[in-house]
Write a structure and sequence with these properties.
Beta-Lactamase, two-stranded antiparallel ribbon, alpha+beta, six-stranded antiparallel sheet
């Protein structure tokens, strides 16, 4: 169990770094593969259903190495006809689904997506995770087959399940940075940015610094204040939500993998309620904003 907690803390720290620097995402993805025992993972962001469905961002990384040819082949050839896609869109947020469970018994034999695309991607025994739909954006996180076993073991499943809200928060932070035109700014650059309120916290939730817009909010104190060097919500209804957000976002504030559960794939649903940010237009590359 100690190793599981250590792996969890390492991944959360890597996600925090990648949230502020696109260049760190491949290393974070490689670390996730290493500790979860998989060859690769996939992040997809889209919205809409049926004819209105659009994919804004997708990236296949295998131990941190981009595989754009696999992504292009799937979305150009197989995605429009993949029988699992409507079922993925209906998964409640936090659901961890075994990829074969998204197809009927007949489709497992006949589906071109499952038998061709997922075979080449090493995903026929993988996982598909509905991370959430903040502001109507559907975040899907996928894993290739486990590399050291024929089937998924309980420890990596618990670790993946515990990371879902942190991956969701990672995407939301990227959207907020894109909206403030602060992609790649780093902590110092964010504190100098007047287009978004930024509060820099230590691992235990203590306030280290705040930029101009954030200081204005904290000084007014009608919504958020920094009494005794820590963030406090003014309204009782917001206090619990703030503490839950801090607990999920900060590795030193009590987050940890969930205890062992008796379940088979797919595990129970997570229902993380994290702060959402409005995305805005952005370039094709990167993880913030809308994509064409």
């Amino acid at each position: 169990m100690a190793g599981l907690h250590k792996d969890f803390d390492r991944v959360v720290a890597a996600l925090h770094g990648a949230a502020l620097d696109d260049a760190r995402w491949p290393a974070a993805a490689a670390l996730i593969d290493e500790v979860c025992g998989t060859a690769g993972n996939v992040l997809v962001i889209g919205e809409g259903t049926g004819a209105e469905a659009r994919v804004h961002f997708h990236q296949y990384l295998y131990r941190g190495e981009p595989r754009p040819e696999l992504a292009s082949e799937y979305f150009d050839v197989y995605y429009p006809h993949d029988e699992a896609i409507p079922r993925v869109r209906k998964l409640p947020p936090g659901t961890v689904a075994h990829t074969p469970a998204l197809y009927t018994d007949r489709e497992l034999k006949t589906s071109m997506a499952y038998n061709e695309a997922w075979n080449r991607c090493l995903c026929q025994n993988g996982l598909c995770i509905a991370v959430g739909e903040p502001d109507g954006k559907r975040i899907v996180w996928g894993f290739t087959d486990p590399v050291a076993a024929d089937d998924w073991q309980s420890a990596p499943l618990r670790l993946i399940e515990s990371l879902v809200p942190h991956v969701r928060q990672f995407v939301l932070v990227r959207q907020a940075l894109a909206g403030a035109e602060a992609m790649g700014a780093g902590v110092a650059g964010l504190l100098d940015n007047g287009g978004i309120g930024v509060v820099h916290l230590d691992g235990a939730g203590g306030v280290l610094a705040a930029n101009g817009p954030a200081l204005d909010i904290l000084r007014r104190g009608d919504g958020l204040s920094d009494r005794d060097g820590a963030l406090h919500a003014a309204l009782p209804a917001d206090r619990g939500r703030l503490q839950r957000l801090l607990k999920r976002a900060l590795p030193g504030a009590g987050s940890a993998p969930p205890p062992r559960r008796r379940h088979a794939v797919p595990p129970p649903r997570l229902r993380a309620r994290l702060k959402q940010h409005d995305p805005s237009g952005g370039a094709r590359a990167g993880l913030g904003g809308r994509r064409a």
